[in-house]
Write a structure and sequence with these properties.
The protein contains 3 helices and no strands. It is mainly α. It has one domain.
Length: 61
Amino acid sequence: MRTAETYVTQNMMQFCYTCDDAGFCETEEACRTCWTDNGVWNVADEAGAQETINLLHAYYE
């Protein structure tokens, strides 16, 4: 099962690896703000993904 922490870690590896300002993001909230400001993370996409995950779990349980 994936947790919110797993998604943050995955996103940090994906979005922060090449960012010159990655050292300034010291908290999860700062990272999320940075991703949103730079257009690399969309909160609506994450919510939609969770709906899909829940639907698939319902089908296969």
